[in-house]
Automatic annotation (TrEMBL):
Keywords: Membrane, Transmembrane, Transmembrane helix
Name the record gives this protein: Major facilitator superfamily (MFS) profile domain-containing protein
Main localization, broad class: membrane
UniProt entry tagged with the keyword NAD: no
Domain Major facilitator superfamily (MFS) profile: 1-369
InterPro entries: MFS_dom (IPR020846), MFS_sugar_transport-like (IPR005828), MFS_trans_sf (IPR036259)
Organism: Tenebrio molitor (Yellow mealworm beetle)
Length: 393
């Protein structure tokens, strides 16, 4: 619970830090502290200390996830934005399989904690490999640093930069926007408020269904380690399929349909245990179908969210959405306790969240074929254009 509470708060704080100090600095600092805290936890002598450190680890870990994700989609453009954003989630699927095997071999939790924490030291090498996000630097008005990164990329790829690109990167007098931003900017315009509130519901729904299945595999029935491996295995093709779906079908409809399908699968699994006791294989199959579908939703959702916000506030937007996701995470451990009231309640809640969350997606605009916006002013101009078109119609 403390870890999940840290995740809920950390997503928002890391978003603010990342938008202020940069993606790279936030990411690498988070990787360092995540590794350090993980090692310290393995040697924690008191439960109270373990309790506090787990909260701190959750706070830092979500910063690694979101800072790295936003950096990955801002380093590329066009269709590669989709490929980079979705591929970023492949290691998550592999980690479920790996940790299930490690947990089976290392039955001592301290050894397991060390085994999953120490490899983080390797990733500190990325400080000398990863560039800062050119989009973020450009939004901050740091054009010279953008030119340096582009020149290195051109040299590496054996390409020549376009003539006068340095002048093309210079902001227009009316477009300079380097003022500080904060969470309240997510509610600055009517369209921004609409996007933000809908995303809160969507993130809550996806995380409740996703982790309601992932963290309660033992309650579904069958062997916990086998279920964990199956859970990771079905996510790999789901993430891969998401790339093809997004390249061909955009973001909006694929996210809505995968969320709804996940809810329907949970709804179909709900009555089986009430009617028959010898159909555990069918319940597990439907749970894995729901897991497959919601895994695709979980891959699409961050990309869609990041594209809905301008660069200058993108990490804050993703982090703020994670607050509602964090609330869902804190509720997940208690979800299956509701089965004491009635066996069908947990799956009913997951089914309802999947369907309602999917419906909310349909109220958001498509982003797949549109270029990323960089400033809040661009967002305001789009909102004004939408309002003008609505008035004319």
């Amino acid at each position: 619970m403390m870890f999940l509470g840290g995740v809920a708060i950390g997503g928002l704080v890391c978003g603010i830090l990342s938008d202020k100090y940069g993606r790279k600095k936030t990411l690498m600092a988070s990787v360092f502290f995540q590794t350090l805290l993980g090692v310290i936890i393995a040697f924690a002598p008191w439960f109270q200390m373990y309790f506090i450190l787990r909260a701190a680890l959750g706070f830092i870990s979500v910063s690694v996830v979101f800072s790295g994700f936003v950096l990955s989609i801002e380093l590329v453009g066009g269709n590669w934005r989709t490929v980079a954003g979705i591929s970023y989630l492949f290691p998550v699927s592999l980690s479920y399989i790996t940790i299930a095997g490690m947990g089976w071999l290392l039955r001592d939790w301290r050894q397991l904690q060390l085994a999953i924490s120490l490899p983080g030291l390797i990733f500190l090498i990325l400080w000398w490999v990863l560039p800062e996000s050119p989009r973020w630097l450009l939004a901050m008005g740091r054009t010279n640093e953008v030119m340096t990164i582009l020149q290195k990329a051109a040299n590496y790829n054996g390409r020549e930069l376009p003539v006068n690109i340095d002048k093309q990167l210079l902001p227009n007098e009316n477009d300079t926007e380097t003022e500080s931003v904060n969470v309240m900017d997510l509610f600055k315009t009517r369209q921004m408020r609409k996007k933000t509130l809908l995303l809160f519901v969507i993130w809550f729904s996806v995380y409740l269904v996703y982790y309601g299945l992932v963290l309660n595999l033992g309650n579904i029935g069958g062997d916990l380690y086998i279920n964990s491996i199956l859970s990771g295995a079905v996510e790999i093709p789901a993430v891969a399929l998401s790339i093809l779906i997004l390249l061909k079908g955009g973001r909006r409809w694929p996210l809505a349909l995968t969320m709804m399908l996940s809810g329907v699968a949970c709804g179909c699994a709900m009555p089986i245990g009430l009617v028959r006791d010898d159909l555990q294989w069918l319940i597990t199959t439907l749970a894995m179908m729901s897991r497959f579908s919601i895994s695709s939703s979980n891959a699409i959702m961050p990309v869609f969210t990041a594209e809905l916000y301008p660069t200058i506030i993108r990490n804050i937007g993703v982090g703020a959405s994670n607050v509602s996701a964090g609330i869902a995470l804190m509720l997940v451990p208690y979800l299956w306790n509701l089965a004491d009231m009635h066996q069908s309640i947990p799956m009913s809640i997951l089914a309802g969240c999947g369907i309602v969350g999917g419906a909310c997606v349909l109220f958001l605009p498509e982003t797949g074929s549109k270029p990323l916006k960089d400033t809040i002013r661009e967002e305001e101009c789009e909102a004004s254009e939408i309002k003008r078109m609505n008035n004319n119609s």
